[in-house]
Amino acid sequence: MNPRNKQRNRFGLVFSAAILIPAFAAAPAMAHDTLESTVPAGNTTVTAAPGTVSLTLSEPPLDARQLNLSVITVTDEAGKTLSDGNVIVDGATISTAIAGGANGIYKVLWRTVSSDGHPIEGTYSFTVQGPAQAVPASPSVIPTPADSTASTGVAPAAETAPEQVKPNDSNAPLAVGIAAAILAVAAAVFFIAQRRRNKRTGA
């Protein structure tokens, strides 16, 4: 091989290495941003629905509200959207307000643009499990005498007047007969006595 060609090849390799080595060295610095933490944390259980969901990235994302570069959507277990659609970018943290919902699994879907200009997105979930609401005890009711009577279904016995004893008239005919017999005997005795008297006078 011509010595000049060898020298040219060596120069080309050195020049290529001078370009590629810095490019490979800068590659880690140009990596996409990553999700560092969330509030509430993923796969955790909270006792009440939060008013805000926030996500913190490794680097501040590009902030261009007019382009809606950052999106956070929060849905409950029934699939109802609880987030209001407004995302606030504060440094490396993006957040959105959500309306309170019922107990269950909440799903968070997020998307933003990394500081290197590439879109990044992800999803995670957390559980809301509030304490069971106690059923208020009904106040005890003291039964009244009227309530007791109504509950037993037995009405108090009505006061009845004492029964008057009626005279026994079953012997009335007998008494009338005896009286008539006595009157008849008395009349007969009187008639016989009067007749004897008349005879004596006539004699």
Provide a descriptive summary of the structure in words.
- A hairpin with a 5-residue loop joins strand 7 (104-113) and strand 8 (119-128).
- The longest helix is centred in the last third of the chain and has 31 residues, at 172-202.
- The protein is α+β, with helices and mostly antiparallel strands and 203 residues long.
- 10% of the residues are buried.
- The chain has helices spanning 3-26, 145-152, 172-202; strands spanning 35-39, 45-46, 52-57, 71-75, 88-90, 93-97, 104-113, 119-128.
- It has 3 helices and 8 strands.
- Mean pLDDT is 75; it is low at 13-29.
- Strands 1-3-6-5 form a 4-stranded antiparallel sheet, with no helix packed on it. Strands 2-8-7-4 form a 4-stranded mixed sheet, with no helix packed on it.
In brief:
With 203 residues, the protein is an alpha+beta fold. Helix content is 31%, strand content 23%.
Measured distance between first and last alpha carbons: 220 Å
Strand content: 15-25%
Count of extended strands: 8
Order of helices and strands: HEEEEEEEEHH
Question: Which sheet architecture does the biggest sheet show?
Answer: 4 strands, antiparallel
| Uncertain runs | 13-29
Classify the oligomer. single chain
Structural class based on helices, strands and sheet pairing = alpha+beta
Task: Give average pLDDT, whole number.
Answer: 75
Query: What is the overall silhouette?
Result: rod-shaped
Number of helices: 3
Sheet with most strands: strand arrangement: 1-3-6-5
